[in-house]
Amino acid sequence: NRRIVLASRPQGEPVANNFRLETVNKPVPAEGEVLLRAVYLSLDPYMRGRMNDSKSYAEPVAIDDVMVGAAVSQVEVSNHPDYKVGEWILSFGGWQDYLVSNGEGLMKLGDNPSNPSYALGIMGMPGFTAYMGLLDIGAPKAGETIVVAAATGPVGATVGQIGKLKGCRVVGIAGGAEKCRYAKEVLGFDECINHKAADFAQQLAKHCGNGIDVYFENVGGKVFDAVLPLLNTGARVPLCGLISQYNVTSLPDGPDRLSLLMGTLLVKRIKMQGFIIFDDYGDRYPEFANDMGQWLAQGKIQYREQIVDGLENMTSAFIGLLKGENFGKVVIKVNNP
Ligand code: NDP
Fold first, then answer.
1. Whose C-alpha lies nearest to ligand 1, atom 32?
2. Which of 16, 25, 217, 294 is the most exposed place for a label (fewest CB within 10 A)?
3. How far is it, in rounded angstroms, from Cα 203 to Cα 152?
């Protein structure tokens, strides 16, 4: 059983030495337990937060413990009446080959799912996050302008495409010309702006001529600074993530802009609401799965994965994800089905 543990806590950007790849004995399931063998492991930005020893909505990973995360596995041994060998399972198994479970927290994906890894992305946590954050908090109306950054990632790409299905004008923000082209040509966004361009804020203003009604916040930082003056009266801001801040170690330089933010929220009566997907919306998963399943089957939603081969490449893929080196949902293929 190969596994990646947290070796030390990062100061700022994670580095390879913060992780350790180990080989330990394969666990043996007792009566009433199953042995799961991972095929696909998920990489997600929230994992950076779990490396810190600070209070958050979830417990930090302890030093020498296996890094946490979702896994799509197959049952290799079953001593549990509800599970049979070969069945596909979504678990929270972490960065490792094998997991023993008594069935708690497992989700069955069937005997022969057509895209098992989708359970980590478009049909799973990121897709669900996009759906609930946009529709429940963003409450978009046809004709309104939605802006979303990390526009080609699993959350952002889904937000924008659902926005189009609801009749909105969608402006994406992404890191680089290739990602922007993809957002427009494949995902169907009306515009996509490169946040690395020197005139990014001006371009955003130019392409949001009627202001912004829904800003789906994935990144924070400079992108938010450019968005704030463009928000319309009554705008909604689902506060989903702040990836540009996950590696920072101190407050930014420059003048304090808190009063500018508060003043804008007040005068424009803006609703900004944070959410943690499963804590806040766990009971609404079936509604999402039903809609998204149909949209995918009808070809109304496009979904891009970046499959990385090998557990040994998981650490570098994670460091890259936080820097925007990924293009689409990062999935680590650790074993053959
Ligand atoms: P992504 O693959 O979209 O996240 C990585 C992307 O973030 C990068 O590819 C990069 O895209 C962008 N990025 C990184 N650094 C910066 C920066 N400094 N400025 C601007 N963009 C940056 O991941 P997900 O779709 O999985 O997640 C998107 C967001 O949603 C994250 O913030 C995540 O934490 C959050 N989230 C929140 C949940 C919740 O329950 N609240 C649940 C799931 C996700 P680019 O190259 O285009 O800039």
1. 241
2. 25
3. 19
What is the Cα–Cα distance from 91 to 125, expressed in whole angstroms? 12
E runs forming strands in the chain? 2-6, 19-23, 34-42, 71-78, 88-91, 98-101, 107-110, 145-149, 169-174, 191-194, 212-216, 231-239, 271-274, 305-309, 329-333
| Distant-in-sequence, close-in-space partners of 279: CB < 8 Å, separation ≥ 6 | 57
- In this predicted structure, the answer to whether residue 177 has a pLDDT above a threshold of 90 is yes
**Model confidence pLDDT, tens digit, residues 209-222:** 999 999 999 999 99
Cα–Cα distance list, 215 to 56, 163, 208, 238, 257 (Å): 24, 11, 11, 7, 19
Distance (angstroms) between ligand 1 centre and the Cα of 276 equals 14
Looking at residue 236, what is its pLDDT?
Answer: 98
Residue 252 is predicted with a pLDDT of: 83
Q: What is the CATH class of 125-278? A: alpha beta
Centroid of ligand 1 to alpha carbon of 241 (angstroms) = 7
301: left (phi over 0), alpha (psi -120 to 50) or beta: beta
* Interatomic CA distance for residues 225 and 128, integer angstroms: 27
Closest C-alpha residue for ligand 1 atom 10 = 324
Binned at pLDDT 50, 70 and 90, residue 55 comes out as confident
Cα–Cα distances in angstroms (integers) from residue 266 to residues 116, 234, 236, 257, 274, in the given order = 45, 10, 13, 14, 17
**Domain map (residue ranges) of the chain:** 2-120+304-333, 125-278
φ/ψ of residue 69, rounded to 5: 160, 165
14 CA to centre of ligand 1 in angstroms:
16
For atom 39 of ligand 1, which residue has the closest CA?
Answer: 276
